[in-house]
């Protein structure tokens, strides 16, 4: 299974034990996990195999696809601009990006986008990875896109558009899209292994994602958690289909196109490590290495719940704050700790912060999340690891 390495404060030994247990039980192939407590690193562990086909071990700076957890790079970038007074989260997107106002989008605010309430959840026409790499074709498509519902009235997961709308705003304000802004103004300050749009010389750091078999993928669709979404996928004009299989021109059989690490797509194409995710989230709630990304007032504002209930895209319950998911629905089950905010992804990754306990957590594996099986699973391996964190500080969650 590969060697487990890293650092772990004695108090957080339950986390190390749970991490080891995931490997022993065959739940993980390769992974990294980080925990920060009171602004200090207390867990930084990595292990297993980065690439089983070549028997390559996971190293400290190995990174892996984050799927939707990568949306945090877009969120944090926008929040730092809000903290600096360069954007107003409650202002219309068109204040900074005038062309966005077309097709009835003039009243959509940045906060509506960040809380998945804007209605610009998918695009009518699919885009290719080449379009995404060029960025301009996707931005023009967003400008022309009509909202799928009355903005602010409902919510639905902005699976493919979230990062590109953020890039459009950030590009207008700073001259840089998400990936470049994040790298220059956030990642470089903390030496983070988090990237949206990876330079080719870093491709060797990436542990390829190991997805489900065809049978497992099918079982996930008949899982009670996903079944309504699956039924919606049968309609190729539905928002569910356009947000997934119909949203990209890349073939799902073409692995080289699906894994375009060079594309700056923070909606679902970012790569990184669990250790760096934990460090970034810690810098939102307090100082890390003497630096804090946003102040307490903005922090309290953006972690307030804004949307909860049936998701127009995923056809299940989702819960959103400003740029962050919050526990509640089946994708991120509530395990009894109030006040958490973060993001999770189909990759199995999870990152969150807990200001009340001065904790942050990041986990990034190369084996996809437990989304398959006929019985809905409410205990992902990421949740087991998070529960071990709270056991370590005397909060005996089960």
- CATH architecture grouping: 3-Layer(aba) Sandwich
CATH superfamily: DD-peptidase/beta-lactamase superfamily
Q: How would you sum up the global shape?
A: globular
Radius of gyration: 19 Å
For the record, the CATH class is Alpha Beta
Terminal Cα separation, in Å? 27 Å
Q: How many discrete structural domains?
A: 1
Strand tally, please?
Answer: 12
Structural class: alpha+beta
What is the ordering of alpha helices and beta strands? Answer: EHEEEEHHHHHHEHHHHEHHEEEEEH
Main sheet attributes: strand count, strand direction, barrel closure? 7 strands, antiparallel
Describe the secondary-structure layout.
Elements: E1 4-8, H1 13-24, E2 30-37, E3 40-51, E4 56-57, E5 64-65, H2 71-83, H3 110-114, H4 129-134, H5 136-144, H6 162-174, H7 178-190, E6 194-195, H8 214-222, H9 227-233, H10 239-242, H11 255-258, E7 271-272, H12 274-285, H13 296-302, E8 307-310, E9 317-320, E10 341-344, E11 350-354, E12 359-365, H14 381-392
Antiparallel strand pairs: 1-3, 2-3, 2-12, 3-4, 5-7, 6-7, 8-9, 10-11, 11-12
Helix pairs in contact: 1-14, 2-6, 2-7
Short structural description:
The protein has 398 residues and is α+β, with helices and mostly antiparallel strands.
Can you tell me about this structure?
This protein is an alpha+beta fold. The protein has a single domain, classed as DD-peptidase/beta-lactamase superfamily (Beta-lactamase), CATH 3.40.710.10. Helix content is 32%, strand content 14%. Strands 1, 2, 3, 4, 10, 11 and 12 form a seven-stranded antiparallel beta sheet that branches. A three-stranded antiparallel beta sheet has the order 5-7-6. The relative contact order is 0.18.
């Amino acid at each position: 299974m590969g060697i487990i390495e890293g650092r772990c404060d004695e108090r957080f030994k339950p986390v190390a034990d749970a991490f080891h247990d995931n490997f022993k039980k065959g739940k993980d192939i390769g992974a990294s996990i980080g925990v920060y407590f009171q602004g200090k690193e207390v867990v930084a562990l990595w292990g297993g195999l980065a690439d089983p086909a070549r028997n390559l071990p996971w190293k400290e700076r190995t990174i892996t696809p984050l799927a939707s957890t990568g949306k945090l790079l877009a969120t944090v970038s926008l929040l730092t601009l809000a903290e600096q007074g360069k954007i107003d989260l409650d202002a219309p997107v068109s204040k900074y990006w005038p062309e966005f106002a077309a097709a009835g989008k003039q009243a959509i605010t940045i906060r509506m986008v960040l809380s998945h309430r804007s209605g610009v959840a998918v695009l009518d026409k699919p885009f290719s990875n080449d379009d995404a790499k060029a960025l301009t074709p996707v931005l023009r498509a967003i400008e022309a896109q009509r909202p799928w519902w009355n903005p602010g009235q409902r919510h639905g997961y902005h699976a493919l558009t979230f990062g590109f709308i953020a890039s459009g705003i950030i590009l207008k304000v700073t001259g840089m899209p998400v990936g470049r802004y994040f790298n220059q103004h956030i990642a470089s300050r903390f030496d983070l292994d988090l990237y949206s749009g990876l330079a080719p010389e870093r491709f060797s750091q990436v542990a390829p994602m190991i997805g489900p078999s065809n049978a497992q993928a099918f079982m996930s669709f008949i899982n009670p958690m996903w079944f309504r979404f699956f039924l919606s996928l049968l309609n190729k004009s539905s928002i569910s289909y356009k947000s997934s299989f119909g949203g990209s021109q890349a073939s799902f059989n073409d692995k080289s196109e699906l894994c375009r690490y060079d594309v700056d797509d923070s909606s679902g194409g970012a790569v990184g490590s669990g250790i760096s995710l934990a460090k970034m989230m810690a810098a939102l709630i307090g100082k890390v290495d003497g630096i804090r990304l946003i102040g307490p007032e903005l922090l309290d504002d953006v972690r307030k719940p804004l949307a909860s209930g049936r998701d127009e895209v995923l056809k299940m319950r989702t819960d959103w704050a400003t740029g962050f998911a919050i526990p509640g629905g089946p994708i991120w089950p509530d395990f009894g700790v109030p006040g958490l905010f973060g993001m999770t992804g189909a990759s199995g990754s999870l990152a969150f912060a807990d200001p009340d306990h001065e904790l942050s957590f990041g986990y990034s594996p190369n084996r996809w999340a437990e989304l398959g099986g006929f019985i809905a699973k409410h205990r992902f391996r990421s949740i087991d690891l998070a529960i071990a964190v709270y056991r370590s500080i005397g909060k005996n969650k089960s």
